[in-house]
Design brief:
2 domains, Multidrug efflux transporter AcrB transmembrane fold
Length: 298
């Protein structure tokens, strides 16, 4: 059942309070990133990758218990058949490769064939970090250009600032919880950017439509009216996305927990920033450059 709202809430009345809250969250996130740092996974920090095929089926919990007992906690275990499994262990010591295999044979009591055993070095991990950062930057620049062409520069700047806000706060939460930064996390971040910008575009598109017939309204009032007009759509989209992603996070297992957590945080933060960050930038820019009413300076 979809939620239908006919609201007239004055969102922009609280924009400066929201901006202060966001600044506190951003500063806190940057401090966490500078002091606590991020928990880089095997893809970025280096480690060992095993592809094994057991003689008989073995559960993920049994494999994980065996690795935990041997001192390799936090391993990523991905079964791809009833007997085949991919294992990623965060360790770059060559001697640990034999230790992992011996531990699995001894603890599980089952034999297996090693189809692949590779080391992911820290140099490769560093290159992946740079590539992930560049991918995010290029995505932001492409969106800046697109929104500038479709709308105006002030809308584009507001949208990109909102996206940067979302990315920094999400990284801060991952630093706080020490959740692993992996390739699925990068996929989640890029999905987050797309989700957040889509929500922002919906609001901006309604603002643009209302600008065609402003009726002498103050820009802040027109912006509030536009947000209220799409509020039902925003809530329904957020909820129908949030609950499936929550289910993935709770029951999807370790393999997709980084991806689903990034999306969970992004849905909440992205919905908020579409109104109170992107919206605040556009409203403040407009009020300072063109006066308080839309009829002035047009």
């Amino acid at each position: 059942m979809f939620i239908k709202l006919k609201s007239n809430f004055n969102f922009m009345k609280y924009r400066k309070i929201a901006l202060g809250l966001s600044l506190c969250l951003i500063i806190s996130s940057l401090l966490l990133l500078a002091t606590r740092g991020l928990n880089f996974g095997i893809d970025f920090a280096g480690g060992m990758l095993f592809q094994l095929e057991f003689d008989s089926p073995l559960s993920v919990s049994e494999i994980r218990a065996s690795l935990d007992e041997a001192g390799f906690g936090g391993a990523v275990i991905q079964p791809y058949s009833d007997r085949g499994v991919l294992i990623r262990v965060k360790s770059d010591r060559e001697g640990d490769q034999k230790k992992v295999l011996d531990s699995l044979r001894g603890s599980t009591g089952k034999d297996f064939r090693v189809l692949r055993a590779e080391m992911v070095g820290p140099v490769v991990g560093s290159q992946l970090r740079k590539s992930a950062a560049l991918a995010t930057v290029f995505a932001l620049l492409a969106m800046l250009a697109y929104i500038t062409i479709r709308f105006r520069l002030r809308f584009a700047v507001g949208a990109v600032i909102a996206l940067v806000h979302d990315v920094i706060i999400t990284l801060g939460i991952f630093s706080l919880t020490f959740q692993e930064i992996s390739m699925p996390f990068i996929a989640g971040m890029l999905t987050l950017v797309g989700y957040s910008i889509n929500d922002t575009i919906v609001v901006f598109d309604r603002v643009r439509e209302n600008l065609k017939n402003p009726k002498g309204m103050a820009f802040v009032d027109l912006f509030n009216s536009s947000i209220n007009q799409v509020l039902s759509r925003t809530i329904n989209t957020s909820l129908t996305t949030f609950f499936p992603v929550l289910a993935l996070f709770l029951w999807g297992g370790k393999a997709i927990s980084d991806f689903s957590m990034a999306l969970l945080v992004g849905i909440v933060v992205g919905t908020y920033s579409s109104i109170y960050i992107a919206g605040t930038v556009v409203v403040e820019w407009n009020m300072r450059s063109r006066g308080k009413t839309l009829s002035q300076g047009r």
